[in-house]
Every structure is written in C-alpha cells, then in structure tokens.
Fold this protein.
Amino acid sequence: MTSPSEVLASIAEQQPDVYKLGKTFGNPCLKLVSTNKVPVMAREASIVLKLPQETINMLLKEEGNRMYIPMTGKPMKEWLEVPDTYAHRW
C-alpha cells in the first residue's frame, strides 16, 4: 500500500504548477503554489483534508473518519482525518 506521504508526493509531481510539497504541524503536506495555503497533509496512517463543514459532516458518517485533533486536544474546524482504510479513494 502507498503511504499517505507518497500519495502527496505523487500529486505534487503530477501537478507542479498547482501544488508543492511542504510541512505543517510537522507533517508532510501539499501547499497551493498560488497562495501557499495547505489543503491536505499526511499523517502516519491517514490523510487530513481541509473541507467545507457541510462536506465534513457528511463524511463523518463513514466509519473511521474523524475531526483532526492536533496536540492541543481541540478539534480543528474544517479539517477531516481520513484513515488509510480508505486509501483506495485517495
């Protein structure tokens, strides 16, 4: 199985005009070339996506998905953590 960070590297390689690799919260991430904003990051066994809250609410109904909670212990608004059990969708 491809690791989450390998998935991000592949996306950046395929779309270098759109994404570049970076780090956020100590994790590999993709940054938009145009704005330097982070729409997605990789964790050890998951992908963390910045999505509209309405989309997150829908995806939270799927087993294993959860709000992203950094070391502060407080869930981050508009960030969803998707486990590698859904890697076939990445």
Notes: The chain has one domain: 4-89. Helices lie at 4-14, 53-59.
